[in-house]
Amino acid sequence: MPSSLQAIFLKANSLQASSLKANSLKANSLKANSLNVMRAGFALNIVLLSLATVASAGPKEDVAAATSTWAAALGEDDPDKVLPLYADDAVFWGTLSPTLRSDRAALRDYFVTAFKVLPGLKVAFGDQLIRVYGATAVNTGYYTFSYVRDGETRSLPARYSFTYVKSGENWLIVDHHSSAMPPPPK
């Protein structure tokens, strides 16, 4: 092969090798980019699915959560933890009182007294029947109060009705009726 032809052949092989190397780098780059896009898509799906789980909670679940918050606050033995869960115009027929409580001072007085006479007060909910009507909800069921007296844990089964209204993002109690569970008929 003449030297100029040989030079052209070598140049062509060199260009072909460079082109193959460039194509290989482009292919690797495309693979890396595709992999990054797939990873980002997977991460986005995880985020969206987790948000969908949060967003799937509806008003009934929100009312149940508000009721659980009330139970936890009651277990704190602190009226100032319970009172913010009631609307300013809330009405309360308490388990331990023959008096209707219809203002903040009367509600506070009820809980101050309850925490004194029922030390270590806790509540466990049984079945709850929650109905939602727009920005109003009713939760009816039974619960059992427990407390400690003379070193012994005692219980007081009761039935209840909570009426809630939606206030911003919160469900507030506007009406609460609680009464001791009557004995079964004989």
What does this structure look like?
This protein is an alpha+beta fold and 186 residues long. It folds into two domains: 1-56; 59-180, Nuclear Transport Factor 2, Chain: A. 47% of the residues lie in helices and 34% in strands. The protein contains four helices and six strands, in the order αααββαββββ. The chain has a six-stranded mixed beta sheet. The protein is globular, with a radius of gyration of 34 Å.
Concise overview:
By secondary structure, this protein is of the alpha+beta class. The chain has four helices and six strands; from the N terminus they run αααββαββββ. It has two domains: 56 residues; 122 residues, Nuclear Transport Factor 2, Chain: A, CATH 3.10.450.
